[in-house]
């Protein structure tokens, strides 16, 4: 029996003709366990046990940790391997021994010199087999965590920032267009108003009182005359021509000869 279950023959397991022995070839790691053999006679029986350990590995070596880290943070890289007995570990940094012989490589405070390749080697002292695995680490200012799950922005946060920037730019462009559309008519209106005033001035002549005087005729009656000066050539205001003096007053006009 194996692990309290009946052990049956298979392509790897065979029994002797008297069942006194069992052969396993080739052995696998799953063959590890507790084997039981029971023998009996017509009077009594007895069972004996044997623990079988299959040495293997190391296999499936891997390093878990961050790929990209910020400057001045603490970083830990963890190395693991399937092995029986348990493997021992050693670390190299950029092909140079670090004297670290545990399964975890720790950097208390990162600086730019810590960027490079970290290599973990797992060794089985029984099988004398070893296997290595490398891990690249980048230290930079403001860097987010890579495969190790650092503090970088998520894709959703980045998308939100991009959308917000686009909305802000669109709002600014729309405001500029609106201001331009409202400003141009005002400028045109200011340009039209003086022209309209000038046209109105040309259409409505201005008058200026020059002088009131009395002209006495032969019958002794008088009449008032008003001299005016028109705005000429579309100029605003009154003309700069000199004003004519009023005609002289005659009390007794000379007789007319016929």
Automatic annotation (TrEMBL):
InterPro entries: Ig-like_dom, Ig-like_dom_sf, Ig-like_fold, Ig_I-set, Ig_sub, Ig_sub2, IgSF_CEA-related. Keywords: Disulfide bond, Glycoprotein, Immunoglobulin domain, Membrane, Signal, Transmembrane, Transmembrane helix. Residues 243-258 have a biased composition (Pro residues). Residues 1-36, 214-258 are annotated as: Disordered. Residues 214-227 have a biased composition (Polar residues). It comes from Onychostoma macrolepis. Pfam families: I-set, Ig_3. This is Ig-like domain-containing protein. The keyword Chaperone does not apply. Residues 1-51, 58-132 form the Ig-like domain. It comes from the Eukaryota. The chain crosses the membrane at residues 157-179.
């Amino acid at each position: 029996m194996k692990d309290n279950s009946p052990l049956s023959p298979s392509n790897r397991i065979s029994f002797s003709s008297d069942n006194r022995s069992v052969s396993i070839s080739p052995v696998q790691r799953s063959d590890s366990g507790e084997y039981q053999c029971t023998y009996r006679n017509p009077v009594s029986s007895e069972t004996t046990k044997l623990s079988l350990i299959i040495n293997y590995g190391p296999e499936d070596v891997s390093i878990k940790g961050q790929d990209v880290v910020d400057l001045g943070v603490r970083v830990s890289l963890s190395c693991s391997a399937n092995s029986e007995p348990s493997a021992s570990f050693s670390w190299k940094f950029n092909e140079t021994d670090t004297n670290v012989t545990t399964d975890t490589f720790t950097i208390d405070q990162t600086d730019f010199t810590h960027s490079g390749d970290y290599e973990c080697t797992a060794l089985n002292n029984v099988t004398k087999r070893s296997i290595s695995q490398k891990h690249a680490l980048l230290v930079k200012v403001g860097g987010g965590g890579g495969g190790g799950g650092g503090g970088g922005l998520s894709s959703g946060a980045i998308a939100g920032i991009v959308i917000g920037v686009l909305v802000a730019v669109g709002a600014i462009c729309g405001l500029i267009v609106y201001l331009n559309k409202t400003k141009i008519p005002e400028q045109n209106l200011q340009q039209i108003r003086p022209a309209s005033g000038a046209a109105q001035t040309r259409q409505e002549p201005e008058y200026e009182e020059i002088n009131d005087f009395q002209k006495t005729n032969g019958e002794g009656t008088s009449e008032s005359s008003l001299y005016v000066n028109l705005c000429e050539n579309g100029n605003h205001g009154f003309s700069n021509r000199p004003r004519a003096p009023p005609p002289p007053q005659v009390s007794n006009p000379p007789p007319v000869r016929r």
